[in-house]
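Suppose you are handed only two things: the residues of a chain and a line of SMILES describing zinc ion. What would the bound structure be? This form records exactly that question and the answer produced for it, so the two can be stored side by side and reused later without any lookup.

QUESTION INPUTS
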Amino acid sequence: MSTIRSSSLFALALLPFAAASLLRAQGIDYAKIEILTEKIGPNLYILSGSAGSDPGHEDAAGGRIGVLAGPDGIFMVDSQYAQLTDKVVAAIRKISPEPIRFLVNTHVHPDHTAGNANFVKMGALLFAREELREELSRPGRGAAANSADPARLPVVTYGMGDPVKLRLNGEVVDLIPVRAAHTGGDTMIRFENADVIMIGDFYRNYGYPFIDTNNGGTLKGALEALDETMKIAGPNTKLVPGHGTIINRKDIAPYRDMMLDIQTKVKTMIGEGKSEQEVLAAKLTAPYDAKVPGGLLPAGAGTSADRFVSMVYSQLKAAK
Ligand SMILES: [Zn+2]
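ANSWER OUTPUT
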């Protein structure tokens, strides 16, 4: 009897370790992640995950959240991993006691949408592109793999065209649709008075550009989105990507030029009849590698540089 009891106690004692190793097997150590808050406008805050617990985003776990706070209630950009909702809510409560009324998704990936259903159940009205809703509805694709809860899906959707405008807390918020760039349903969120634009993931300065062609992203659209950002941003506008450091307009041109340079080189090699393997072997990003933190870290089948060059290759091949 006592043997059974002690062995079942032993099994119970092991449970937390089993759960922890399961989490590690999935790669993300949610328990270790902290939510860090940064104030970037009079009533605008950026919430980021801490470093070192998310192998896909070593510099800061998950995707960045924006929080516009005030007496009209909270407007939120993106919803992070669902496993972090409690920590995100705790961070929001340190900013404001007001209800979370509105949520918008910059794009479909789980690090930006997996918490959707949790916030919708707290009363948030979810906005996103119609294309994002379609991507999120498709079984087994994008963030849909995370949950089948209908509450994850946007309630208010919009297509390309004039920005959707929300006026609250003394701010004018523009939901600016972006033609197929990082995904097929990207939105930039501009806070006119704070002079901040949350630009999502078509720009990144940790690792090479990631264009998710399986979810409708295109190289051409990403280049257009960068041009559009340079047009609508002022010289002092804070541009907040989903990952990496906050930038200004002047940081966009060298990034776009790097993409154009790689595009030209890949195009030349395709013209010479080179295969994807030969193009990858040429290490076309070498002149930039020292300036791109995380560029040579694993991403997908190879490094983020390989993933980027493969994407350029397949996009140019498809365009032929
Ligand atoms: Zn992301």
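WHAT STANDS OUT: Residues 205 and 291 are 9 Å apart (CA to CA). The chain has ten helices and 14 strands.
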